[in-house]
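## retry 2 of 3
previous attempt timed out at serialization; input unchanged, resubmitting
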Amino acid sequence: MSKLSEEDIYKALSLVKDPELNRDLVSLNMVRDVQIDGGNVSLKVVLTTPACPLRDRIEADVKQAVMAVPGVEWVSVEMDAEVRGGGALRGPQPVEGVKNIIAVASNKGGVGKTTVAVNLAVALAKAGARVGLLDADVTGPNVPPMMGIASGFMAESEQGLVAVERFGVKICSLGFVLPKNSAIVWRGPLIDKALRELLHQFPWGELDYLLIDLPPGTSDASLSVAQSAPLAGVLIVTTPQEVSLEDAQKAVTMFQRLEVPVFGIVENMSYFVCPHCNERTDVFGHGGGAAAAEEMGLDFLGEIPLDVSTRAAADEGVPITESAPDSPAALVFKGIAEKVAALCSVLRFSEGSGG
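## retry succeeded, writing output
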């Protein structure tokens, strides 16, 4: 029997495709560090995001392909990730060190947009990504209490606004420097200036994903963010109610006009499961978010239940994805985070391939 070679391994893996990018792992440069010792083979597979939803499937496909090579007796696969950033040279100014900027938006208040933003940020961080979270709701910052940070705790600080890290997420919010219960009464130009400074003058460092929690509505803040930095995409948060879905469509229209990719719709407060009898109740109706997404030709990213523990976790300052990562609600957030990470990977691959 001829001696195993790296060429044999690469040839076998050239038949294994990344299901999201629809290209083989070898041509995508995902196969690294192939080592052969007799019939033992070890290698590394570098995914495009640590939050890859198909990680286990790809690992299984790689092992199966390598084990099918004559002479292979044992295979070890190390799974790693390397997030790709945008390479656009035109349009809004990139944020230094940040590879992907993702906005979380809604056209209606009270739909749980901030709850979605903080839990997606924590879910991505727990997957191993470097994550930042910008509270862009300048006049009503809600991120600090949901992440266990006291409002206004930097109000007397001489060093000004600095980042705070919680649960692996680097956070910036004007709520850090605003005394509790104080109000910001700013017109559009001041909001625009503040957001530009928070994006481009704040020391974000190296991040795979920067999530931006936008204020509700198609206001100056949303326009400023979309025009100040290259957004990889935006998630639209809604509830099953008809009026919320109509508002979601308005938000989608705004971002499409701004030529910002809309990743899809997230339906929050989708249903309630009784903790006593386990019966499901569709409090606000059912299927509206999926129907709206289909009508607009968008992805439906998931249904988040109306869950007491999620609300309690937010009130306590420890998001459900951190406090109970294996709970049904946390697993929904994790699934949405994986889908968003995959969409970023597809977008970056498309840019790189000229597609």
